[in-house]
Amino acid sequence: MFNEMLVEKGYVVLDIDYRGSAGYGRDWRTDVYDFLGGKDYDDHIDAIDFMVKNYAVNPAKVGAYGGSYGGFMAAMLATRAPDKIAAAALRPVMDWKNYFAANPGYTAQRLGFPDKNPEAYKRSSPITYADKLERPLLILHGMSDDNVHVQDSVQMIEKLIRLGKTKYFEAMLYPSENHGFVRPESWTDEYERIFAFFEKHLK
């Protein structure tokens, strides 16, 4: 519904099935192994270039938003492609070492073990690229999240503060919300914030 609303408000919206998603065969699904935010990131960059070429999209006014892995991807786009993206990241993984501690099965299948493959964890984590942030980033996270713990967003916020990047990001924490928000007022607030963020930075 939010995508439909964005279209009604004059935005061009592209929702892509990037690598790592199911339904396109094993190679497509496993192509992100050893580098989350690698080839799937490339798919997003290709999608942006496609929109600019075919739909008269202004390359200086491109945004992304997503939650969970989508929030991670939004943060990766904001930090690794600061010339292309203003992004809203909901409950994002910012450091895969944190997520390994919370969900080792999911993470090890994709990146191995952090003590044996530290470079994969480093290159796959948005916090690694925090110093590159040059466009707006909106961070939204439930403080009771027991999947992607709020420490991910807090650590990213702290690093951005230490790097002198406070003018590039906004943040909102929801004390009573888990990974999937349940309060209607929280859902309304986060999407109102995303919409206002896009109106401010993409119009």
Entry summary:
Helix content is 45%, strand content 11%. It is α/β, with parallel strands linked by helices and 203 residues long. The longest helix is centred in the last third of the chain and has 19 residues, at 184-202.
Which geometry do the CA atoms define? globular
| Sequence of secondary-structure elements | HHHEHEHHHEHEH
The CATH superfamily name is: Alpha/Beta hydrolase fold, catalytic domain
Walk across the major sheet and give the strand order.
1-2-3-4
Structural class: alpha/beta
How many domain units? 1
Q: Output the number of helix runs.
A: 9
Helix content: 40-55%
N-to-C terminal Cα separation, in Å?
20 Å
- Outline the low-pLDDT stretches: none
Q: If you consult CATH, what is the topology?
A: Rossmann fold
User: What is the beta-strand fraction?
Assistant: 5-15%
Q: Which CATH-level-2 architecture?
A: 3-Layer(aba) Sandwich
Q: Radius of gyration over alpha carbons?
A: 16 Å
Report on the biggest sheet.
4 strands, parallel
Q: Provide the residue-averaged pLDDT.
A: 94
Count of distinct strands: 4
CATH top level is Alpha Beta
